[in-house]
């Protein structure tokens, strides 16, 4: 990705973060939406927005299926978000937004949780062995 596209992607990411936080008032969108990356197509036709969603209750875990409704809400709001984005950006065209669940980040977070859990278990077992 060239520098111009990268700067545009960074601007879209910053602006969308605040728009989603401040402007999307759908009560079904219960989680904290984090934009982990934006990729803009070379012709500026599309921007693929990769998001992770941290739910207040972690019972469902971080997987694509548990956040399907939130992803549908974001994709349905893409037209509104694009309109708001075009009002703040100084470009001739504003790319269409496509939201994708970022499974890489979610998987990394899950792996970190498993590692932390294993380390706690190891420390607990080592402490019991010392007694």
UniProtKB/TrEMBL annotation:
Compartments, as annotated in UniProt: Cytoplasm
InterPro entries: KH_dom-like_a/b, RbfA, RbfA_dom_sf
Name this protein carries in UniProt: Ribosome-binding factor A
Domain of life: Bacteria
Subunit (UniProt): Monomer. Binds 30S ribosomal subunits, but not 50S ribosomal subunits or 70S ribosomes.
UniProt entry keywords in alphabetical sequence: Cytoplasm, Ribosome biogenesis
Protein role: One of several proteins that assist in the late maturation steps of the functional core of the 30S ribosomal subunit. Associates with free 30S ribosomal subunits (but not with 30S subunits that are part of 70S ribosomes or polysomes). Required for efficient processing of 16S rRNA. May interact with the 5'-terminal helix region of 16S rRNA.
The gene coding this protein: rbfA
Coiled coil: none
């Amino acid at each position: 990705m060239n520098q111009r596209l990268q700067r545009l992607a960074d601007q879209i990411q910053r602006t969308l973060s605040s728009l989603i936080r401040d402007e999307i008032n759908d009560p079904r969108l219960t989680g904290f939406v984090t934009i982990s990356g934006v990729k803009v197509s070379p012709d500026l036709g599309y921007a693929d927005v990769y998001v992770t969603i941290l739910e207040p209750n972690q019972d469902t875990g971080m997987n694509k299926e548990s956040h399907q409704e939130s992803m549908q809400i974001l994709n349905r709001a893409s037209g509104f978000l694009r309109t708001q984005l075009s009002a703040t950006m100084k470009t001739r065209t504003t790319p269409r937004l496509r939201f994708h669940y970022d499974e890489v980040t979610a998987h990394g977070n899950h792996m970190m949780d498993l590692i932390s859990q294993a380390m706690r278990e190891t420390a607990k077992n080592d402490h019991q062995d010392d007694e």
